[in-house]
User: Fold these one by one.
Assistant:
Number 1:
Amino acid sequence: MNQISYKQLGDFICGKLFIGLDLFGVFLLPFAFVFPDGIVRTILLTLGSTFLTLGISLPFALYFQNKHSSDNFKIIKSCDQAGIISIFTSRKRDGDDIRKAIDEAAHGTGFVDLLGVAFPSFLNPTDARTPRVESMLQDSSVKIRILILDPKSQAADRRADIEAGSNTIEDINRTRDQNIASLIHTRLIKLRLNNSQLDELENSSTPQTKLNVEVRLYQFDPVVFLMVFSDSMFVEQYHFGRAPGKVFPLGCIGKYVPVMQFKKDSDSYAFLRSHFNYVWKHGKDETLEITKKAITRYKAFTVLEDEQRQLDLDAPQRIKPIRERRL
């Protein structure tokens, strides 16, 4: 794509217009000396030099401009044919733009499938979230399937080894034991279940049918980061590379390569959604254990809330006798 086509360049140089400019310039330069030194000779010399310069330089300029435009058009055409909506330099550099695009994708989606190492930020309740993402995570009508790396797997050990100095295993455990439980907690708050309904949900063998959050751990080496929505998906290639001078000697190696957003009707969306389903099928189901822990915590939380509410109601009654004694 970047090679010079000498045939095309020759065709530009030998074009009738440019040959005419060259000939006219060559004619004017000697013809100028027919006239004595003065304004006429100066004008003719200037015109001759200008035409000759244009005849020689213009075809080169137009050739490379046309080639550059053609190359750009090929890139745009290839992206369109591949179903690519957006390309982001990396999560490191284009974090804000990616968050905005994810916020738009989250609006009105019926589901979201997440495949990654740990999702330490996206599922962390203390991290800032865009309004539509926050609404989606709280909405129990939106099905969420979460695939994270099994912290006890050899694949996790290999990832932690290449990311020495980072908290790879700790991040996975925190997501599994805390962040996902917090996600379920927010959905329970929105559902406003009474104690009887909570007990029924806690004793159910399929509580995910009401909460619409499912979690599995996979043991493959991570090859791709996926966030799949109803109308598009976000993709980042995983790797084991630590390019010298590009990343710190220690720590996370993710977020450095481009992120691509594919539209729903693209081949890439279909293939990578199928990849997600394959990993999901072979993952270890942690849904029941995580959900029941989250429900138990939620019930304890509501008990504390009820006790605090009762204390607030009783406070005036406790203060009243004190006031009466002072009087």
Number 2:
Amino acid sequence: MTEPEERRRAEAVAELTEILLASIADDEASANEVLEYLRPGIDVIYVNLSRTEGNVTTSTQVSPYDPARDLAGCESKRKLIELAFEVAAKVDGEWGCCHTSEAIRAGQCEGAGLATAEPFLTALALPYATTA
């Protein structure tokens, strides 16, 4: 990969990280909003979806939604991002580059560390990918 390509890749990883963190923050805000509406002693809600066509109404019960589980998932995703960059810095150090996890995350370096973090971030981004 050429130096300009590596630079673009580093910038893309930094941008992906910011997008992931923003998406996780949105998920966290949504879960906290639901928690505000739950009464004491109720920690799970059920959602019923109904659709009426003509004179027929069909109803489907969706699995329970536990906002506390969503909040734990948000924290888990943040930790995985942090770990991806920590591992990236260790790999980078083995190649003699010795960049910190913060420098790799900020898109300030290219190479082995960046290549290590990228697939983890891409995998974490899959649930947030949308199709047009």
Number 3:
Amino acid sequence: MKKEKIDLSLLNKIFIPNMPTQTVLTDVGSNLDVIELIKFFLNPTPNPKIYRELGDGLIKNYGVTVVIDSSISCFGGASLIHSLQTIKMLLSSLSIIELPCFDLIIATESNPVIICNERNTFEILSDNSQIWPIFFSLITRKISNVDLASSIRAAFNLHNYRRNEHTDFLFVLTDGLFSESERQKITDNVHYCISRGMKVFGIGIGMCPYGIEKLFPQIIYSKNPMKLIEGISDLSLILLYFYYYFHLLIISRNIYYFVNLLEPFIIFIFIIISSIINKNNLLLSNFNLIFYNLFLIFL
């Protein structure tokens, strides 16, 4: 994947800078800097900068876990090219932004294989990274069934034992073709991850990802893998708008518990409206937001 073809502005919409870069000295604050305080006692000055507070500059402080379904339905026959292109697009995109914490998990027929965890994206996703031979050997084994549920649970375990705190994304790449019993295990683990603060996205790979809508609350399937990041960016924007406006209005009116039951339905309706008005990957317009607010006001 040529990195110049990846739109960095789309990635910045998904991974919004969210952590101050460093602390700075100020003359007001709550965190005393002992060294500067001693300097002030030795050499008093007006308006001494003896407090150390977080600065204004922000960097991206995110943890990203990618789980890949290695079954033959994803990597066999006509599905192979689309699956590889989708994975290449996602990983190449992550490689051009510096994120401090990246995990890669391959779902196999038994235990998940954690290729890497808590690695910097610049380092681990570089062209000469040591993970690529292992990665390709695992996805070309042509196994019939994988235990995706245990891989998603492993993703949560990595999130739970982070050495540092991050906002965590989980991207699960699969075609969703599982039995009813396996589907239930997968959705249970997906909901568990979400309940613990992880942002979970299901990404369809292969030619027939018919089952992903039954597994994940947010799904993206791009027939043209080059549009994958655009789809994730648009979906992230929709979720951000809905979360902000919905909760702000509901909490202010003290009807949280009543309307919260309607939230999935409301979001579904407005995603449909958005897709009709904006035919480019569900982008919200000002009209959508105004219409959405009016709807909530008259609930």
Number 4:
Amino acid sequence: MNRTRILYASLALIASLALLWGLWPAWTLWLDRHDRWAELVQQQQRMQTALQEAQTLQKKSLPSLAESQSLIQTISRQRFGVPPINLPGGSVQIPINAVSPQQLAQGWDDIRTQTSARVVRAELDQTPQGWSGTLIFKLPQKP
């Protein structure tokens, strides 16, 4: 009788340990659910923001070539202190000399957002006085 109790107790202990071992992954997932839910909500919000930005950019009308060149003229003089050089094929070259990182970033962003131009080449060197070099932008063409 004593041996059967020990046998049943041992079997119950082994079955309990097997059950705990099998349920452990589910238990850890259950404990982490709030953190994971918060991460998923944040990811969904970032994706919705990116979607709205993409839709805004798709709806934005492109300026004409002349308007883009005029805007780049203004931005280049304001941010970099020099006029841009028009290149064939709807490209514009902007030489910059000793421009601060903030001026470079703001001018680059202004050109990109206001004219929808994209950078095709940037040859820049950092010096103690600031950034110097050449930026070449490709202006958008209306279809």
